[in-house]
Each structure stands twice: as C-alpha cells, then as structure tokens.
Design a protein that fits this description.
The protein has about 120 residues and is mostly beta strands. It contains no helices and eleven strands. Strands 2, 4, 5, 6, 9, 10 and 11 form a seven-stranded mixed beta sheet that branches. A four-stranded antiparallel beta sheet has the order 1-3-8-7, with no helix packed on it. A hairpin with a 5-residue loop joins β5 and β6.
Length: about 120
C-alpha cells in the first residue's frame, strides 16, 4: 500500500481558509479527501482523477473547496475557503485504483492516511 501522509490541519476562525496537503509514494488513479466529525460517519468531500486532473466535489463543499494535484511531487491538496464550524473534523487523504469517477464511498478506497485535524471555531 502506498503510504499517505496528510498535513496542514489547524484551528481556524469561521470564514477562514486552510490548505491541506497529502504526500504519497505514488498517486493512485483516484485520490480523494474525506472527513469525519466526532460521532459521525466518514464523508467524502473531493476526488481527483490522476490521469487528467478531473475533479468531483461533494455538494456540501462545492463552492468553497478545491482539490488539486502535483504529479511530480506525488501530492494532492485540498484548498478550503469560507470555512464553517460544520467543516470541523479529521480530514483524511485516500487513494483507489478503481473507485470510479464521482464515487466517494469510503469502502471503495484502499489506501488511507492517518488524518489531520481541522477545527473551525471562534
């Protein structure tokens, strides 16, 4: 399994921005970001297709988050803006060779990082 390592989580005020990074030893065909708040199920927020950079965003973040990749650096990023308290949670990077475009079901992803904490609070 390709190890994944997230970074960039922090405490930020509502309306603020953060950029999360995911370093890998090799990008999977589909890379995605998930998040999980305490007591809630893991939720997929964004996916990117390595081959052409095509992206898919969950409705809850569509106008505020952007996912991108740097193939030379084997890295994936999640740019988050206009953050809200409900965005609080542990954010995970994940990879899958065959999840399918737009598929953000956690069970379709084989490789996972340990997560980075994002807290949105005043």
């Amino acid at each position: 399994a390709a190890p994944l390592a997230e970074s960039g989580g922090d405490l930020v005020q509502p309306g603020g921005s953060l950029r999360l990074s995911c370093a890998t030893s090799g990008l999977s065909y589909y890379m995605a970001w998930f998040r999980q708040a305490p007591g809630k199920q893991r939720e997929g927020v964004a996916q990117i297709k390595r081959r052409n950079g095509e992206t898919f965003l969950a409705d809850s973040v569509k106008d505020r988050f952007t996912i991108s990749q740097d193939i030379r650096k084997n890295s994936v990023y999640l740019q988050m803006s206009n953050l809200k308290p409900e965005d609080t949670g542990m954010y995970y990077c994940a990879g899958s060779p065959g999840a399918g475009f737009g598929n953000l079901r956690p069970e379709r992803y084989e490789f996972w990082g340990r997560g980075t904490q994002v807290t949105v609070s005043s």
